[in-house]
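User:
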Amino acid sequence: MIKVTLITVTLNSEKFLEDAIQSVMAQDYPNIEHIIIDGESTDGTLNIISKYNGHIAKWVSEKDYSMYDAINKGMKMATGDIIGTLNSDDMLASPDVISKIVQCFETKKVDAVYGDLLYVEQDDISKVLRKWKGGEFKRRNFRYGWMPAHPTFYFRSSLLETCGYYETHFFTAADYEFMTRYLYYYKVSAAYVGKLIVRMRNGGMSNSNIFSRLRANRRDYLAMKKNRVPMPFVVSFLKPLIKLHQYTNMGLVRFFT
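Assistant: Predicted structure:
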């Protein structure tokens, strides 16, 4: 049976971590390895991890340099055939998420899979702010600023040897660079699961204000240039614009500021 590794990175995550762990425990797929990489939390995070120790395959609490450095640590510890991530304040959307992802890998014979995501209010997950529908995979869409939702992205662990780990010097754009490198530069085969994979609580490092958005655009540009996406300067500005249709209750001012 295919083994799936889920990596969760934590740092003072006591408020929502329990929801994330319980969403993994609720999965109907039996062969899941849940790894938690903690960055020396000082709140109650470690108490929560200890509470669910019997359901967590491996965990460490030690200094790291970034979220993506921590994910890299988790991937080096992983023994699964397939690797995905689950943010500490996010939840797998339903009990059949992992089984549907595995089914897609098996039936489509691909090396990567992604799906749909909902951004929700932090303290009211029934309130949807943004809908990210992945859509059918077309490699050329990267040329227009498209990308899968990173929390829904799963790939075969065997690809790490060829395609590599997260490049942490891209900071908040490291996830975009990682997926662009895999799906565009290395032409990894991928398929779309037409299913809601993750409910993601709102709040992100790259969109907190106009300056962070511009800084993120610069990093996107560098990621595109590195992975030979044509016209990277233009595409780096198309990338946020093509996401506008995903927003439901959020105004454009909140997106750009």
